[in-house]
Amino acid sequence: MEIFILALIGAVSGLIAGLVGLAGGIVVVPALIWLYGPVVLHDAIVVSWFAVLFNSIGAATKQLKMRNANERIQLWRGARFFLLGAVVITPLVALLASEAKHFVTPALVAILQLCLAAVMLWPISEQPENKAPRRRLMDASFGGVIGGVSTLIGVGGGTYTIAYFVYGTGTKFRDAIATANLTGLTIGALSVTGYLLSLLAFHESAAGAGSLTAVGMAVLIAAGMASAPAGVRLSRVLPVKTLRQILIFALIVSSFRLLLT
């Protein structure tokens, strides 16, 4: 029964990753805390890093396959300095995350998510083209901040990324989702790398979320990676308004789940 629940958690996280670009961390962390108790928060964040990485591999791969060469180039040009900032900061935060365990609480994660849900309620207008001027330093700075905060609380930074690109740069919502998938891939890869390096640097044993076994973790991750492409396909056909509503709903449910732990 436990393996089935973990597979369901993984599948939902992957679907959310592909659908609205959240990489699945907002599903994995509250769900593991619900399943094993609040004591596993920090171990759940580590598990979430791995889920974020593999969910984003599935989602980002599908996003790139569904776009033509010119669209892929434009996507990369819009995201490259933002991703560069994340590349610089994310592994440092992941490497030092073990020293900040007392700072990260379920309430902190919940409040950050509720703030983003509130931001997403602000109306947007879809423009045929992105006319907003790009600022490389601003992109890199926000990428670094979002990468660091996301790593600290165990998410892929999708919501932060979407908020920045939609409201800060005027990017289309669906393109912001694709950028969020790339951000989740970057943050996930660097978080996992930083975590593995921290095991060597601080001579710590690998985290284990309560009774969550290696098999259970593998099932969760595999289910998420398998369902992420389906989420991407849905994101291409659902109206933007519906995608925003799903995003806001997922953030609110995740936040209240954490606040009630």
TL;DR of this structure?
The protein contains ten helices and no strands. The chain has 261 residues and is an all-alpha fold.
Give keywords.
mainly alpha; 261 residues; globular
Please report the total strand number as a whole number.
0
SSE sequence, one letter per element:
HHHHHHHHHH
Would you tell me the structural class of the helices and strands?
mainly alpha
Q: Cα-atom Rg, whole angstroms?
A: 17 Å
Helix content: over 70%
So how many helices? Answer: 10
How would a textbook summarize the main sheet?
none
Provide structural commentary.
Helix content is 77%, strand content 0%. The protein is mainly alpha-helical and 261 residues long. It has one domain (2-259). Helix 1 (2-20) packs across helix 3 and helix 4 (69-96) crosses helix 6 (136-153). The longest helix has 29 residues, at 173-201. The two termini are 22 Å apart. The model has no long low-confidence stretch (mean pLDDT 79).
